[in-house]
Design a protein that fits this description.
about 15% strand, alpha/beta, four-stranded parallel β-sheet
Length: about 110
């Protein structure tokens, strides 16, 4: 049985404008734990703010997002910034068979249970 994820009216730029700033401290906590030149996957990455905050430190960053609006917003930001070490995947976090075991040094899933 397949469930279709419901899009929320605030997904995308509204979330970035109102919610992302409130999560700044959480991103700083994560950043302090991630060693330079490592790779990270962020499950439920939303607007990609955590991933984008690590672009100067990590060699490879992947964000996975099931909301099309959130994914599109994050994907456009990467294109606008011309980043080469970041990619956003439109998928559910449970469908990551393309990555071999132990491919990433870190995996995060912040604020995905709300």
């Amino acid at each position: 049985m397949s469930q279709k994820r419901q899009e929320n009216f605030y997904d995308g730029w509204l979330y970035h404008l109102f919610v992302d700033p409130a999560l700044r401290k959480a991103r700083k906590l994560v950043r302090r734990q991630v060693k330079p030149k490592s790779s990270l996957i962020d499950i439920g990455c939303g607007t990609g703010e955590l991933v984008l905050s690590l672009t100067d430190s990590c060699t490879e960053l992947v964000g996975v997002e099931a909301s099309h609006r959130m994914w599109a917003y994050a994907h456009q930001r990467v294109r606008d910034l011309g980043l080469r070490n970041v990619r956003f995947i439109f998928a559910s976090g449970e469908k990551l068979a393309d990555f071999p075991s132990a491919f990433f040094d870190y995996a995060t899933a912040c604020m995905v249970m709300h």
